[in-house]
Design brief:
6-stranded parallel β-sheet; 46% helix; 6 strands; alpha/beta
Length: 230
């Protein structure tokens, strides 16, 4: 039986997929993995070592970057692939000093400020649910702490371009993003779809960078189609 692997985004836990897990469990065993290594390659290798057999891998944001690296390392094991609100591109050079500065501030006690003021506001569309979702994002980040922030920030900062990997994407590949995602905008997902034309491209309305939480009904419907597709 194919195991469904869910990989959350930067400083997120399994709570990112809270609305999806009960649905996905109908399709097979579900495992949520929060990578804490300091490189994308090590994150992917760790997940591959900790699992067996064929995998249906769904990653959001950083999780999608890790999923692409898993495809690079073990394409024969990735039966299904869902890339959500993510990018195949290397980090922008301008982000290098920003991420390095954020790491220093977080270790000096500024995790809450960095997450709330610099990162999380750009994640979500304006809606009545935004304050509660921001609180959930803060809870996830604080539960992981400064050491995980540093490892994940370094992994994102130093990641390689992964556009070439998309040529090996399986036939059952979903490329999904929130219609109003500002961090990984729709054109990044259009690019991935062009590089993997066999993929299915889905846009989630009324959602930004975290459609799993902002519009779980539409996200669940897209994921169901992904897993039902034979």
């Amino acid at each position: 039986m194919t195991t469904i692997i869910l990989i959350p985004g930067f400083m997120c836990t399994a709570a990112l997929f809270g609305p999806q897990i009960p649905l996905l469990e109908r399709f097979g065993p579900v495992q949520v993995v929060v990578p804490t290594q300091a490189t994308i390659a090590d994150m992917a290798a760790g997940i591959l070592r900790g699992t067996e057999g064929l995998l249906a891998v769904a990653g959001l944001s950083m999780g999608g970057i890790v999923a692409l690296e898993m495809l690079r390392q073990a394409p024969e094991r990735i039966q299904r692939l869902a890339l959500m609100d993510t990018t195949p591109l290397a980090d922008a050079p301008a982000n290098h000093d920003i991420r390095t500065g954020q790491i220093a501030e977080v270790h000096a006690g500024g995790l809450r400020r960095v997450m709330r003021e610099e990162l999380k506001p750009a994640y979500l569309v304006d809606s009545p649910d935004k304050p509660a979702l921001l609180d959930l994002c803060m809870d996830m980040a604080e539960s992981l702490g400064p050491d995980v922030f540093e490892a994940q920030a370094l992994a994102l900062r130093d990641r390689a371009d992964a556009r070439d990997v998309l040529r090996d994407a399986p036939a059952q590949t979903l490329i999904l993003c929130g219609a109003e995602d500002r961090l990984c905008p729709p054109d990044r997902h259009d690019l991935m779809h062009e590089l993997a034309p066999q993929s299915v491209r889905e846009t989630i309305p009324d959602a930004g960078h975290l459609p799993t939480l902002e519009n779980p009904e539409a996200t669940n419907a897209a994921l169901s189609r992904w897993l039902e597709d034979r």
